[in-house]
Amino acid sequence: MRKPVAEGRVLSAAEGRVDVDGVFDVVVIGGGSAGLAAAAAVAESGPYRTLVLEREEYLGGVLPQCVHDGFGLYLYGESLTGPEFAHRWVERVRGDGVPTALAATVLSVEGPGSDGLLRVDALGASLGGRATLAARSVVCATGCRERTRGALQIPGGRPAGVLTAGSAQYMVNVANQLPGDKAVVLGSGDIGLIMARRMTLEGAEVRLVLGQEATGLVRNHIRCIQDFDIPIRYGWGLASVHGYGQLQGVTVAPLRADGSFDLARREYVRCNVLLVACGLVPEREVLGSLALAPDAPGLFLCGNANVPHDLVDQVTQEGLRTGAAAAAHAAALSGKPAPALPDDLARMAGLSVREPKGRMGDMAGDVPSGHQRIVCTVCPTGCVMEASGRGGVAGNTCPRGEEFARRELACPTRMFTGTVAVAGGRRSLVPVRTERPVPRDRLFDVARACRRLNVKAPVRMGEVLKSDIARTGVALVATGECERAAHGGR
Ligand code: SF4
User: Fold this and answer.
1) Of these four, 152, 180, 293, 410, which has the most CB atoms within 10 Å of its CB?
2) Cα–Cα distance for residue pair 411/473, rounded to 1 Å
3) Residue pLDDT, tens place only, 175-196
4) pLDDT tens figures, 200-238
5) Which residues surround ligand 1 with Cβ inside 6 Å?
6) CA of 381, closest atom in ligand 1
7) Are 52 and 43 within 8 A, CB to CB?
8) Residue 311: closest CA among 40, 28, 30, 34
């Protein structure tokens, strides 16, 4: 099912052979947001020899398939899409001259030995086959993986059509395949909500979202669920999966306080795709026995491999701080100068990235007559505001909230993000967004226009692909790149 991702600037091909002899100051395992930030912090804070090992053929981790916006609100004060956020860090690490070994699999990490060095056993063409790398510090930034249906032990048949939300995201946003047209989403965390919206905009009917409780950001509940009137039930779960060969439907039922199903109230929902979005598990298997001793000298964990985070901004900050700590450890062992982060990275690392406070529970309670409850979706904080009929707004933490409330009352607008087909490219899709928000009630028109659009490779990031998409008066721009295929492509 999963096709190899061809290269663009964010999704880049293997970059030649890496010199693996000698001792590295810092080896970073994982080229996602945490690993790239750690590598930039190391490379820019002193004369340290650094290497990034990445198992995929591209850098950026999961970000290239996250075509929605909302990344970088704290670090950059902008709402970037996943590919745009990844692009900034890929370009930064390339600019720093850090070698990256792509399609490189780490088999184990061991040590430290009597020489104080850790040993990374890895495999990959760019490493010249199998290689053992000696490093003063190792940063494990391997991210996390999704809980699968098997891990959740959902009873019923084993039909096709049951997949994790992240796999569905890859199919829709990268492989250009809609996994089904009648969907049920299990899990009300952020990725479940985001995929419910994405499937809806791609023409599928999301028949139900189920969640034990409202765990996602309130911002996502508003922009992904409420905006599209997608049915969502809290306190309900999936009792069984039905179908032979292909998924036919699911049985859903309310959950009792002891976690059992109240089957007397069960309901059957016909669907041909079930997206499982039930949490993330840190992925640290490469550490082997060291996973049980993550405080081994010189070994550093960061990002979602440490603990799953709500925001990529938090992951990136942790990568920066960890990179600085790894560089300090390497400097102490080697006698090199102590690290000094450049000003902009130090500013990012030190920013106060507030825990998003807006959760759906904040929406409970009565609103005084003549008032309207509005959730500010400008940043992940998700302030819950009340607007009175006389034009007063309360509950906002900053002036942007008041401005948002007034716009929301007059004419709600939303940024459209999605994909467009590419002819003759190394990829079949390129991610896109509208240059500015469009009226909320025109989102489906924009989505339909994007499905009809077919652009020719090459496509450059920021390129205007349509000057007036769906007669909204707003331009559609590429948020990723697509090189021309060597032999004509798709
Ligand atoms: S009011 Fe300000 S802090 Fe609160 S969600 Fe809006 S932009 Fe964020």
Assistant:
1) 180
2) 16
3) 999 999 999 999 988 899 999 9
4) 999 999 999 998 776 777 888 888 998 999 999 999 999
5) 376, 378-379, 381-383, 396-398, 400-401
6) 5
7) no
8) 34
Residue 37 has pLDDT above 60, yes or no: yes
Separation of CA 310 and ligand 1 centre (Å): 17
Structural contact between residues 312 and 191, judged by C-beta atoms closer than 8 angstroms: no
Domain ranges of the chain: 23-145+281-350, 148-278, 365-410, 417-478
Query: What is the percentage of the chain residues whose pLDDT exceeds 90?
Result: 68
CA of 329 to the centre of ligand 1 (A): 38
Question: How far does residue 314's CA lie from ligand 1's centre (Å)?
Answer: 17
Cβ(451)–Cβ(409) under 8 Å?
no
Quote the ligand 1 centre to 320 CA distance (angstroms): 25
Superfamily of domain 417-478: CPE0013-like (3.10.530.10)
Q: Which atom of ligand 1 has the smallest separation from the CA of 396?
A: 1
The residue whose CA has the least distance to atom 1 of ligand 1 is 401
Q: In this predicted structure, what is the pLDDT of residue 358? A: 56
Let me know if the fold of 148-278 is the same as that of 417-478.
no
H or E segment and range at residue 472: none
CA 277 to chain CA mean position, Å: 13
Structure confidence by residue, pLDDT tens digits, 160-173: 999 999 999 999 99
Does residue 359 surpass a pLDDT of 60?
no
> What count of Cα atoms within 13 Å lies in the side-chain half-sphere of residue 369?
0
Q: Write phi, then psi, for 33 (nearest 5 degrees).
A: -65, -40
What distance in angstroms lies between residue 72's CA and the mean position of ligand 1's atoms? 14
The superfamily in CATH containing domain 148-278 is FAD/NAD(P)-binding domain (3.50.50.60)
Cα 354 to ligand 1 centre (Å): 11
The domain made up of 23-145+281-350 is a member of CATH 3.50.50.60: yes
Closest residue by Cα to atom 2, ligand 1, is 398
Nearest to 105 by CA among 39, 54, 62, 35: 54
Question: Using CA positions, which residue lies closest to atom 6 of ligand 1?
Answer: 401
Ligand 1 nearest-atom number relative to CA 385: 1
